[in-house]
Design brief:
heterodimer; A: alpha/beta; D-Maltodextrin-Binding Protein, domain 2; six-stranded mixed β-sheet; five-stranded mixed β-sheet; 12 helices; globular; B: mainly alpha; 21 helices
């Protein structure tokens, strides 16, 4: 192996890995996912891209553009060519909660983007670790009243629903609950299992395995109805609390994208989302495939924004 | 208990030796090894690109392949650190400190040989630990909570601020500066952005890869170009026997490898403490216990052996919480879990019981994969060392190019490439002024984790500082901290009384 081999080999390897040929630039659909690879959403947008490729003969890739809690990736789509080939695949937070949570948001969630379709929905869960031994919200309330100094709930990040929902529960139940921020769900979950915190609040999908194994116990889910994956765990509402909120993943395009391009993309995406293979993949990561019209997604975005804005402001988490 | 483990392992080998699975294990470690050697590729990006390919595979094969990429990459990771001072994979940054001086002395092949020994031993220990102790270890991990991690990080910072050769004061200053750099970004507890100057690219902090490559790779490049240090030309005539560690050198490496392995396995127990911290702590420990600490930074064999063994034992250990609790220790493990989920395998505490073929097949494939990697890498040492015979004017610009790609690939961010170049210029300035970059990297890695856990521990304890001494493990670490500082003060007093004595070694 001489020097030339090494250089050629190196170059070939780099090309093979990055694998982003510029040849097909015009027909290339690029999904920007504003977070690092590895989460359920990331896996599913890859499946979606794969489906588009197979079923519709389009070239589609997923670009992870993580940073600043998703703000960098979203900003990139805002500035992308509005030709319908660059799309944002994002969880609802960037489009619904961020306009209230961040003062210096580099985009306008409504004016800079055109909704394409809602792809998936999911619930959040509140679970107790071994510290309290609570089996329901009522038992938890009792325990928290007796142990006000142990009322800690671990959650992955400030101002998001896993933060807001337990705070609302504590306010309504009249107990003291302190939110402890962790870097992601995994350390927050470990903390609850280890007895560092009494509770963990996170997307339901991240808690199901540990709940089924008995390491933690889910006390409440956040949907209107029970989660199809956990029919035995009651919602907040069933336990007498007026707390409800679901999350979703949606596809957005830059605002100036022509209407017919959006309609075309919506048709292709909804077809892929409604396919059995995609629904099965979604089930395997505990998400629910939906697939709405652009107008429906726009309405959901607006309604959710107006719904959470006062809650975030009341919790003192607005405009940081 | 022991016998059932062996029976399970035998079953695991049955699974892993099926031609189909064996093939994917081989592909995984090959890709991993390549990714490790090239400064331009990160493990994470390689896996995320290959993930869709695994959709059509059987779950066991997919997991064996993806895991192979992870540990395979560590085998290649040290090569550029040792030969070119290019730490393209953060756990191997600390290997630069003694690996590169060894190369400059014409012993690059020896350093790589020692690395291989450390790798095999560390990995073997890590796998054994996973085979026999996984369920217990997962429980031990639970006793490391915010207070314990905070005290441990303090110990690491104290022990490590004397990491550098030369002036201890400059070492401490660099550690503190590294901690300040670590503050850049969004504060976990309050979501407030610190030192970001309104740039969203800085909201997640400075990328570790950017800092390591800037401080070591680019600064070294600038030093070479400006002829501050003579360019290494000692490799025009290569003989194979120069590449094998001598018996004396093997002996010198033996205990550091053992200690490094233990440090690595300890670090893998502690949640969120991965191979990067493990390798730094192993190096600092080795220097503290060494009889000849003055050799460190000038090509000490132990300075290569300990961190490398630590990295490998920690990488294998990282699989334990991932597989036995279903909780990923870092981003790479999160991807691995993602791959399991997509194959309808729910990772979690019941995985070992419900899918013994995956757990034990994985362990068996670790043995097979590590064996393949040794056979792959030991004969290649000569080839890698030959890389140094490439004229400087070709080698370094190429390396620089790979640095840029590597930094870009970590977060798909061009901004980070600029950060790396700026840090490189700064690092060159530090080199000229004889400030060592290593303690800065240590402060950068440990400092933020110290702060985060300090504040979390206090918050959970309702602001009660005694939580750090009430908890026995935390108190133990704090006692060692006191001891460490005490020994240095005593040594200082003795030195002023009897200036002839060699007590100053404690400060080196």
């Amino acid at each position: 192996m001489d020097r030339r081999d090494f250089i050629i080999g190196g170059a070939a390897a780099v090309c093979a890995f990055s694998g982003r040929s510029a040849l097909a630039a015009e027909t290339l659909i690029r999904f920007i996912y504003p977070y690092a690879p590895g989460s359920g959403g990331d896996v599913l947008v890859r499946v979606l891209a794969d489906d588009l490729q197979k079923k519709l003969g389009l070239s589609a890739i997923v670009d992870n553009k993580p940073g600043a809690d998703g703000r960098i990736g979203v900003r990139e789509v805002k500035h992308a060519d509005p030709d319908g080939n660059t799309l944002l695949f994002t969880p609802f937070g960037t489009m619904v909660l961020f306009p209230t949570v961040f003062k210096n948001l580099p985009y306008d969630a409504f004016a800079d983007f055109a909704p394409v379709t809602q792809a998936l929905t999911f619930d959040f869960g509140l679970a107790a670790g071994p510290m309290s031994g609570a089996k329901s919200l009522a038992e938890l309330t009792d325990w928290l009243k007796k142990n006000p100094d142990k009322g800690n709930v671990g959650m992955p990040g400030l101002g998001a629903l896993p933060h807001l929902l337990p705070l609302k529960y504590a306010a309504d139940a009249g107990v003291k609950l302190q939110a402890i921020a962790y870097k992601g769900t995994a350390p927050a979950l470990t903390a609850a299992m280890a007895g560092e915190t009494a509770l963990v609040s996170a997307p339901l999908a991240d808690l199901i395995a540990q709940h089924k194994a008995g390491a933690i116990r889910l006390l409440a889910t956040s949907g209107k109805t029970r989660s199809p994956y956990l029919p035995d765990v009651p919602t907040y509402g069933e336990q007498g609390f007026n707390i409800e909120g679901s999350g979703w993943y949606g596809v957005f395009a830059p605002a100036k994208t022509p209407r017919d391009a959006i309609a075309k993309m919506n048709k292709a995406l909804v077809e892929a989302i409604h396919s059995d293979s995609f629904k099965d993949r979604a089930k395997s990561v505990f998400l629910t495939a939906t697939g709405t019209s652009p107008e429906e997604l726009g309405a959901i975005q607006k309604a959710d924004y107006e719904r959470w804005k006062p809650v975030i402001e009341a919790a003192g988490l607005a405009g940081k | 208990m022991l016998w059932t483990s062996f029976a399970d392992l035998a079953h695991g080998f049955e699974v892993a030796l099926q031609p189909h699975n064996l093939l994917y294990c081989l592909i995984g470690v090959l890709i991993g090894n390549l990714v490790g050697v090239l400064p331009g590729m990160g493990v994470l990006s390689a896996v995320s690109i290959l993930l869709p390919l695994t959709f059509g595979m059987k779950p066991v094969a997919a997991i064996l392949m993806i895991s192979g990429i992870f540990y395979g990459a560590q085998y290649g990771g040290a090569i550029c650190s040792i030969l070119l001072n290019l730490p393209s994979h953060p756990p191997h940054a600390v290997t630069c400190l003694d690996g590169y001086p060894l190369t400059q002395q014409g012993k690059g092949g020896v350093a790589l040989g020692v690395t291989m020994m450390g790798a095999v031993f560390g990995a073997a220990f890590g796998i054994l630990q996973m085979m026999f102790l996984a369920p217990y270890i997962a429980k031990v991990a639970f006793s490391f909570q915010a207070a314990e991690i905070c005290s441990l990080m303090l110990l690491g910072l104290l022990a490590g601020s004397t990491l550098a050769k030369g002036s201890p004061l400059k070492g401490v200053a660099m550690t503190a500066f590294g901690m300040l750099l670590g503050l850049v970004g969004t504060d976990t507890a309050t979501s407030v952005e610190r030192y970001t100057f309104g740039r969203f690219e800085l909201a997640d902090g400075i990328e570790l890869v950017a800092l390591a490559l800037g401080l070591f790779g680019i600064a070294e490049f600038l030093r070479g170009v400006n002829n501050v240090a003579p360019v290494n030309t000692g490799y025009t005539k290569l003989r194979f026997r120069d590449m094998r560690p001598s018996k004396a050198e093997m002996k010198e490496a033996a205990f550091p490898i053992l200690r490094g392995t233990l440090v690595g396995s300890l670090c893998s127990l502690i949640p969120g403490t991965g191979p990067v911290i493990a390798s730094f702590i192993a190096y600092a420990t080795e220097k503290k216990v060494s009889k000849t600490p003055e050799k460190f930074g000038h090509g000490a064999i132990a300075g290569v052996a300990a961190p490398e063994a630590s990295t490998h034992s920690s990488i294998q250990g990282d699989f334990i919480p991932t597989m036995s609790l279903g909780i990923p220790g870092d981003a790479a493990m999160a991807l691995l879990l993602g791959a399991l989920i997509i194959h309808n395998v729910t990772p979690g505490p019941r995985l070992i019981v419900e899918h013994p073929d995956i757990f034990w097949g994985l362990i068996a494939s670790f043995w097979i994969g590590n064996l393949i990697l040794v056979f792959l890498n030991v004969p290649m040492i000569g080839v890698w060392v030959r890389l140094l015979t490439v004229p400087y004017r070709y080698l370094y610009p190429t390396a620089l190019f790979f640095i840029c790609i590597g930094v870009f690939a970590t977060r798909n961010s061009l901004f980070d490439v600029g950060v790396t170049l700026a840090i490189g210029l700064f690092g060159y300035l530090l080199l000229l002024l004889r400030f060592e970059p290593a303690p800065m990297l240590l402060g950068f890695v440990l400092g933020p984790r110290f702060e985060e856990n300090f504040r979390r521990a206090l918050k959970i304890a309702q602001g009660d500082l005694t939580t750090f001494v009430d908890r026995p493990i935390s108190a133990f670490f704090l006692a060692i901290c006191l001891l460490l500082v005490g020994v240095q003060i005593v040594a200082r007093i003795r030195k002023t009384r009897a200036p002839v004595r060699l007590a100053s070694t404690a400060f080196d």
